[in-house]
Amino acid sequence: MPVKHEMRKNLLGRLGAGEPVVDGVLGYDDTVLPGIEHAVIAGHDMILLGERGQAKSRIIRSLVQLLDEWSPVVAGSEVNDDPYDPVSRRAREIVAELGDDAPIAWLHRSQRYGEKIATPDTSIADLIGEVDPIKVAEGRYLSDELTIHYGLVPRTNRGIFAINELPDLAERIQVGLLDVLEERDVQIRGHKIRLPLDLMLVATANPEDYTNRGRIVTPLKDRFGSRVRTHYPPDVETELAIIAQEAATIDDTGLRVEVPYFMAEIVARLSQLARRSPRVSQRSGVSVRLSVSNYETLAAAAVRRSVLHGEREAVPRVSDLEALASSTLGKLEIESLEDGEDEEVVEKLIRVAVLETYRAHCPTDQLGHVLGSFEDGQVAHVGPDLASAEYVSTIEAIPPLREPALALAGSESAGMLASSLELVLEGLHLSKRLNKDLAGARATYRSRV
Fold first, then answer.
1. Phi-psi region for residue 53, left (φ > 0), alpha (ψ -120 to 50) or beta?
2. What is the DSSP letter of 136?
3. Architecture of the domain whose range is 3-229
4. Would you give the DSSP letter of residue 272?
5. Which pLDDT score, from 0 to 100, does residue 191 have?
6. CB 447 within 8 Å of CB 380
């Protein structure tokens, strides 16, 4: 059956069995995935519109799972010829000569997917094909169709072909692509070949390129039956789920690495805030990869600190958030006019993320007894140069800190208590309840009175 019918059959089977149509994509169940399912059921070619880091490529590659696991092809065919309906000259000759004895090969669905990242230097030869000088040198005439080396599109016949960032493809190449997909005629160096290819065409594009600059030629744009709009995670919970799924774990250091839920939440909130910030270019988007990279950097900072202190557990703290500058600035485009302003924007986003997380888990109105201790002259020191055991000593010296720190930590672990204590103290400072004095990497919290 045609590839689009094959995909429709398998998609409906998955839906009927309650299985996910696309694996590993979170937050799209009620928005993006229904549009993709509608397009496949309708037999449409589709284009996915969205900013960077919205899982467009992952979605496209997951569509391969909707193909049959194995498909028969004429053995030796360059374009995956159907044994019952070959389209290339070589396969037609084999079938005409051998009939039912023609050799058959079985193609796995992973081999029925082709992808090209559109670049300005992409040529018709890359996508459609070119005369192979080696075959000419072997004695074939230029007029012989067998001298042609087929490009990516014909070689993905009876499969899925994807073009990433379609607007970056030169318009003359887009026209050539339209010919092979719509008219089914291919002209290569004077050869006029009719190739009735059987393809599902999927493309991705940035919304700005697609709608404003208009760099997709109108006939090709009209070829896509469905347009599906992707988006970033709508809430902190979805962002956290993606981080948990995608972030690499550090498990080969001999340390027990544990990232508290509230520290992971700060990382997720940072990305959410950046997507709403007027100081961050929203045209470029804020990829989910920012959250994943920041989470991994935060864990790495904790591992480094723990090794320096000779500790057996690595638990990130608020003071480790300074390390996120390196993994954040490379993934954001800051709307600034002066040098150094981008660091200030990131620092402010981190402070707001910490404050929101603190308010979500440590209401200030429940910490009056803690503030009372500081008003009596107590001070607290924090910083990456302090081992976790010293934080435990601080809690023992200021008993009212124990209850909120333990409630956040959820355990008596020194590393977890140190992390939760820093969040409580920094939250009180950002809420303008405590003063904070900085001396290098060391911070001292004291009463505002």
1. left
2. H
3. 3-Layer(aba) Sandwich (3.40)
4. H
5. 65
6. no
Task: Summarize pLDDT for 189-211 with one digit per residue, the tens.
Answer: 666 667 788 889 999 988 866 55
Look at residue 224 and tell me whether its pLDDT is greater than 90: no
CA 385 distance to own-chain centroid = 35
Tokens standing for 447?
A: 């009463």
Report the DSSP beta bridge partners of residue 314. Answer: 257
pLDDT digits (tens, 9 = 90+) for 44-66: 999 999 988 899 999 999 999 99
Tokens of 99: 């009939």
Region of 254 please: left (phi>0), alpha (psi -120 to 50) or beta: left
For the chain, what are the domain ranges? 3-229, 236-447
Largest CA distance in the chain: 99
The helix (run of H) or strand (run of E) holding residue 264 is helix 261-276
DSSP state, 101? Answer: G
Compute φ and ψ for 92, nearest 5 degrees: -60, -40
Taking the C-alpha atoms of residue 156 and residue 206, their distance in angstroms, rounded to an integer, is: 25
Q: Sort strands 442-447 and 434-439 into parallel, antiparallel or unpaired.
A: antiparallel
How far apart are the C-alpha atoms of 167 and 174, rounded to whole Å? 9
Q: Which phi and psi angles does 258 have, rounded to 5°?
A: -135, 120
**Per-residue exposure over 178-199, b if at least 16 CB sit within 10 Å of its own CB, e if not:** bebbeeeebebeeeebebebbb
Residues sharing a CB contact under 8 Å with residue 306, sequence separation 6 or more, in sequence order: 255, 312, 313, 314, 315, 415
Give mean pLDDT, residues 353-365.
90
Q: Please give the mean pLDDT across all residues of the chain.
A: 87
Q: What pairs with residue 444 in β-bridges?
A: 381, 437
- Distance separating alpha carbons of residues 27 and 19, to the nearest angstrom: 16
Q: In angstroms, rounded to a whole number, what is the distance separating the alpha carbons of residues 273 and 286? A: 10
Exposure string for 81-104, b = 16+ CB within 10 A, e = fewer: bbbeebbbebbeebbeeeeeebee
Task: State residue 211's pLDDT score.
Answer: 53
